[in-house]
Design a protein that fits this description.
- One of its GO terms (biological process) is positive regulation of osteoblast differentiation.
- The chain is globular and about 55 Å long.
- It starts with a helix and ends with a helix.
- It is an alpha/beta fold and about 230 residues long.
- It contains four helices and 13 strands.
- It has a seven-stranded mixed β-sheet with strand order 1-2-3-5-7-9-8, sandwiched between helices.
- The protein binds 2-acetamido-2-deoxy-beta-D-glucopyranose (NAG) (6 copies).
- The site of one 2-acetamido-2-deoxy-beta-D-glucopyranose has 3 residues, from loops.
């Protein structure tokens, strides 16, 4: 993929680079759907959810677009009975509302496996695997048919009682997956700890090189936002 993108005239390069980023994102999504063979079956939790949401099944995924101008995104992922032992990277499916990992000999789920899964509201796990972030990150945890169900992701920014989340000045707390939150800078502030005021310098740079710089600046900006989150 990357090799195919080189050897192009600089003018085209930026455009092509963007296309390549997009393509590798798509590839990533598809890889999650092909993590194991077979397709989502009608009778399963994800199958029922998919047909009730009018989604489209592709391998182990249920895909849907909000409207015809938007690209399709993964709303359901069924990796049930897939012989998975470790769950580390499912990030292609970070838009999913429902994920089924039941009937797998899972020994370990990485703490960050569901970081960024802000929509995830229904997770089915083998009975002995705890819900990501622990019980406190979910409205309801129950056992059913030998599985553990984690239902209703709690908003970490709205925890009355226990730990109160303090984002730095000029930033707002936003959910970022079970047990995670991020502090994003308020409008007109940016940079480390949102200390810099003024418009983000997107419009200062024009031209093909400019577009490339914008992509880089954006990536840096995102990295900095993440840094603030881990305070
Ligand atoms: C699943 O449902 C679809 C649409 O309702 C149907 O076309 C398909 O045959 C069903 N598949 C199975 C295995 O029952
Ligand atoms: C499609 O979705 C986008 C973003 O969610 C929204 O801005 C736009 O108005 C929608 N278009 C229609 C026709 O609903
Ligand atoms: C799990 O997969 C195996 C082989 O792929 C199959 O024989 C078995 O029936 C499946 N079990 C369930 C509960 O679907
Ligand atoms: C689970 O993963 C963590 C870190 O990735 C590792 O330290 C730990 O030993 C693993 N536990 C098992 C049971 O594999
Ligand atoms: C989490 O909730 C489940 C189901 O209610 C319960 O069995 C388990 O003991 C709880 N775990 C902790 C650490 O509180
Ligand atoms: C915060 O939580 C309370 C009770 O859990 C709820 O009534 C309220 O709507 C929540 N606020 C937000 C912004 O989610």
């Amino acid at each position: 993929m990357k090799a195919g993108c080189s050897q192009l005239k600089p003018v085209l390069l930026v455009l092509i680079l963007n296309l390549c980023f997009y393509a590798s994102y798509q590839l990533n999504e598809l890889q999650v759907c092909e993590l194991c063979s077979g397709a989502v079956l009608n009778g399963t939790a994800v199958g029922r959810f998919c047909s009730s949401s009018a989604g489209r099944i592709d391998g182990r995924c249920c895909l849907k677009n909000d409207n015809t101008s938007d690209p399709e995104r993964i709303i359901g992922l069924d990796l049930s009975n897939c012989s998975l032992t470790h769950v580390e990277d499912l990030h292609g499916a970070s838009t999913a509302l429902m994920i089924d990992l039941s009937l797998n000999p899972i020994v370990n789920i990485s703490d960050t496996a569901f970081q960024g899964f802000i929509e995830l509201n229904y997770l089915i796990l083998p009975q002995d695997i705890v819900c990501p972030g622990g019980n406190a990150s979910w409205e309801k945890v129950e056992f059913k048919e030998g599985n553990r169900l984690c239902e209703g992701q709690r908003d970490m920014c709205n925890q009355t009682g226990q730990l109160s989340i303090n984002c730095p000045e000029n930033s707002i707390c936003a959910p970022y997956g079970p047990s995670f939150f991020e502090c994003s800078c308020e409008h007109n502030f940016h940079g480390y700890k949102c200390l810099r005021e003024g418009e983000f310098p997107v419009l200062l740079v024009f031209g093909p090189l400019g577009v490339f710089m914008v992509v880089i600046s954006f990536l840096l900006w995102v990295t900095q936002r993440r840094k603030v989150k881990s305070l």
